Each structure stands twice: as structure tokens, then as C-alpha cells.
Amino acid sequence: MLDPQDATVRRFAAACRRRDGAALEAVLGDDAVATCDGGGLVPAPGSVRGAAAVARLVIGIVAARAGAELTVESVNGRAGLALRHASRAVAVIGAETAGARITTLWIVLNPAKLTAWHRG
Q: Do you know which InterPro entries this protein is assigned to (predicted)?
């Protein structure tokens, strides 16, 4: 049996893959917050608040990387997401949940912080 965090992140990942904004919003808490780290090397909006705004942000990140693979992986010891294009990590997303909803996302886009996530 999956732990609740893992199950929630997997539902979130499935909605991301489909680019389904309504399904993403359903998994996000109403006051969800996403904080992006671009390290000044890639465009990043800083913090975004609210389920609809966070869903749009995440869809934008995934859609901007056509052909990228989104996988559920351990991020800081908890279920999170890794987005890779041609085996190179382009985003890693840590998640905090409350029950069956995601309350906080930490989105790392900074290439300097993603090298350990590259495959092959």
C-alpha cells in the first residue's frame, strides 16, 4: 500500500503528464504555494500562490519541455518529481502534502543544482 504522500504525488504526476489543469487543481490545496529556484540562470517566477496559479505554472514548466519524461522519485526523502529531457534533469519538484492535497511545491530549475539528477 502506498503512503498518502506517495499516492498524492502520483495523482499529481498523472495530471501533469496529461496537462490537465482541473485535475492538478483538484490535487492542490486551495492555498497551495510553489516556490521556484532558477538561480538567476533560468527564468523563474519566485513564489506563486493558489491552486489555479500553481497548476498553470506546473503545466507551463512541463509543456515547455516537449518530449521530457516526468517520473516520481524520492526528493529529500519524500515522494517528488523529476523532469528530464534527453536524460538531463531540467526540473526537480519536492512536495509537501496535507491529507490528499499538495500544500507546497519547491521547484528547482537551476541547472547548477540539477547535475546530480542527470542520468547516463
A: ECF_Sigma-70_Domain, NTF2-like_dom_sf
